[in-house]
Write a structure and sequence with these properties.
Chain A: Keywords: Cell membrane, Membrane, Transmembrane, Transmembrane helix. The complex is a heterodimer of chains A (about 70) and B (about 325). Chain A has 2 helices and 2 strands, in the order E-E-H-H. Chain A is mainly α and about 70 residues long. Chain A has a two-stranded antiparallel sheet with strand order 1-2. In chain A, helix 1 crosses helix 2. The termini of chain A are close together. Chain B contains 4 helices and 14 strands. Chain B has a 6-stranded antiparallel barrel with strand order 1-10-13-12-11-14. Chain B has a 4-stranded antiparallel beta sheet with strand order 2-9-7-4, with no helix packed on it. Chain B has a 4-stranded antiparallel beta sheet with strand order 6-5-3-8, with no helix packed on it. The longest helix of chain B is centred in the N-terminal third of the chain and has 33 residues. Classes of the chains: A mainly alpha (about 70), B alpha+beta (about 325).
């Protein structure tokens, strides 16, 4: 399903949609992790956050493109 | 120990992100899909073969027509008159020919004492000349007949009339296109693929087409991959020397190569118009070999010679290349 999303006559790159979804998911995950005990297992917080976002983005892309 | 675990977990996370990021990059950048595709169709421009003013319009804009249907009629009085004139000329030339032939027949029967050989030759040649004139008139009659028939313009094929601005009373000139006809069922998609995404694409690959208008998926297969696009460096000056650009931009975009896709299935309710925007994705792993006109062994044979000896295009079909490593 790697194709453009049309909204109001304008094509959007699917990556834009995926990034927005991933941003929300990653933010939620990050908040959960930092609220829980898991935050003590993280060494460099920024590194971890960026990595988490990339992982979520890859998973979101894979799931959404292989849906149909 | 605690610190070690923390560092380890973070680094594992970073490594995982790198791997997934690389996969994502590869997937997004090299999956053969393009946002730049257009629906196209066979367009036939209708031009009258004779000049004149339009006496009757039999169609409306956007009307579906069948092959042979009358599109419009040109006033035929002048062509009718030309036909009558041609008929009259034929009769006249026929009479002349008969007269000359008769003359010759009569003179040929005379003895050589009664007529000079010069007069006999003249009579024979006059008869021949009259015969040629007669045949010429017959050809002109046929031409006038064709002109008259072509004052009625008929649809050359099944299709839909597009961009009809012609009205009754307009003067149309011979050979000037007056409207276009989209041939029925001739829709196809041309997808413009970046060079970088071209390698996995091959003739026969299944394609999934999404129109801008809706979520319904059209399916098709790759019919041909373009063999050439324009190159501005080859345009010549007035001495036909190539005008090669001295500068090139630091950031250069990859060229787009047109890939034609035959539409195999159009879902119900999808209305196609030539020029519509589409997104096309090719599935190289899902090749439909039934549509390929090249036997697989020919491709295998071909792949061993890739980049070496000049290839004979005829042997590989319309621009098909070995799977997985086309150029």
């Amino acid at each position: 399903m790697l194709h453009e999303m049309a909204l109001g006559g304008i094509f959007y790159s699917p990556m834009l949609i995926f990034v927005l979804i991933s941003l929300v998911v990653a933010t939620l995950l990050r908040t959960l992790i930092h609220k829980s005990v898991l935050s003590r297992l993280v060494w460099q917080e920024a590194w971890f956050d960026v990595s988490l976002f990339v992982c979520v983005l890859a998973v979101v892309t894979y799931v959404l493109t292989s849906m149909d | 120990m605690r610190t070690f675990l923390k560092v380890l977990i973070t680094l594992v996370m970073v490594a995982l992100a790198t791997a997934l990021g690389l996969w994502l990059w590869h997937y997004y950048m090299y999956t053969p899909w393009t946002r730049d595709a257009r629906v196209r169709a066979d367009v036939i421009t209708i031009a009258p073969d004779v000049s004149g003013w339009v006496s009757q319009m039999d169609i409306q804009d956007g009307q579906d027509v069948h092959k042979g249907d009358v599109l419009f009629r040109i006033n035929d009085r002048r062509y009718q008159a030309a036909l009558d004139q041609a008929k009259a000329t034929v009769s006249q030339r026929q009479a002349e020919y008969r007269l000359q032939a008769h003359d010759y027949q009569r003179r040929r029967g005379l003895s050589s004492n009664a007529i000079s050989s010069e007069s006999l030759d003249t009579a024979q040649l006059n008869a021949q000349s009259a015969k040629a004139s007669y045949e010429q008139a017959q050809a002109q009659l046929e031409s006038a007949q064709i002109d008259l028939e072509r004052t009625v313009i008929r649809a050359p094929t099944d299709g839909t009339v597009v961009n009809l601005n012609l009205r009754e009373g307009n003067y149309v000139s011979q050979g000037n296109a007056q409207m276009s006809l989209i041939r029925a069922g001739s829709f196809y998609v041309t997808a413009y693929f970046a060079e970088t995404k071209l390698p996995p694409i091959d003739v026969g690959d299944r394609a999934s087409i999404h129109l801008m208008s809706g979520a319904k998926e059209l399916t098709g297969h790759v019919a041909s991959i373009g063999r050439g696009i324009a190159n501005t460096n080859t345009t010549g000056n007035n001495q036909l020397l190539p005008q090669v650009q001295q500068t090139f931009t630091w950031v250069r975009l990859s060229q787009r190569i047109p890939v034609d896709i035959v539409i195999d299935h159009i879902p119900d309710g999808v209305y196609l118009s030539a020029g519509m925007t589409a997104t096309v994705r090719i599935a190289p792993e899902d090749r439909d070999d039934s549509n390929r006109d090249t036997p697989p062994e020919a491709i295998q044979h071909n792949s061993s010679e890739q980049g070496a000896a000049p290839r004979i295009e005829g042997a590989t079909g319309a621009g098909s290349a070995p799977p997985g490593q086309s150029q």
